[in-house]
Write a structure and sequence with these properties.
The protein has 188 residues and is an all-alpha fold. It is 70% helix and 0% strand. The C terminus is likely disordered.
């Protein structure tokens, strides 16, 4: 088996095992389901091209999460350039985060929408740091390597992001929409 065939098989297995996680990270950063699919495919294309850089002594999942973080941020930069160059056409659809629905589904929808709106107000790097930390449990050093910044800066980004989210969710809780139930919890 030649190198290309080996890489092809390895990336096929990686895609089968990790595509869902890669997509969720992409979606959380780019905030557009169609763009997240593109970023997911770009991630695995980059993995194929860079398979020689993968260290088999480290988790494949973490390596792919680093690639998708960069690919999503690159996609946002390209989108920003297009937005400046072209008139805005249509609205960007925001995707809802998936979650288990126990209890009143309307309450979960209201909470998810409030958290989603609060996250949308954050800078892309802050969203990436929050998703990688709280959804996937990466430590500051790992997140710093994914986002090409220091662990101390990751701590600062997360601290500011938490404060922003708490303030936004507290403001939303103080003025809930009349047709939806008040949220049960805030991000801490």
């Amino acid at each position: 088996m030649d190198d290309r065939e080996f890489r092809w098989r390895a990336v096929e297995v990686a895609y089968r095992d990790h595509a869902d996680d890669v997509y969720r990270i992409a979606l959380a950063i780019v905030r557009d389901p169609d763009a997240a699919v593109d970023v997911t495919h770009d991630t695995f294309a980059r993995a194929f091209d860079r398979w020689h850089q993968y260290d088999e002594n480290r988790p494949l999942r973490a390596w792919l999460h680093g690639i998708v973080s960069h690919a999503a941020l690159d996609a946002l930069r390209r989108r920003r350039v297009r937005t400046l160059a072209l008139p805005r056409i249509g609205e960007v659809r925001e995707a809802a985060a998936a979650g288990a629905l126990d209890g009143d589904p309307a309450r979960h929808v209201a909470e998810r929408d409030q958290i989603d709106a609060a996250l949308a107000d954050l800078k892309p790097e802050a969203r990436a740091a929050l998703v990688l930390r709280h959804y996937y449990g990466y430590d500051y050093a790992e997140i710093g390597s994914f986002l090409r910044t220091s662990p101390g800066n990751v701590g600062s980004i997360l601290s500011r992001s938490h404060a922003t989210l708490r303030a936004r969710l507290a403001a939303d809780a103080a003025d809930p929409p009349t047709d939806l139930p008040a949220p049960r919890r805030a991000i801490r």
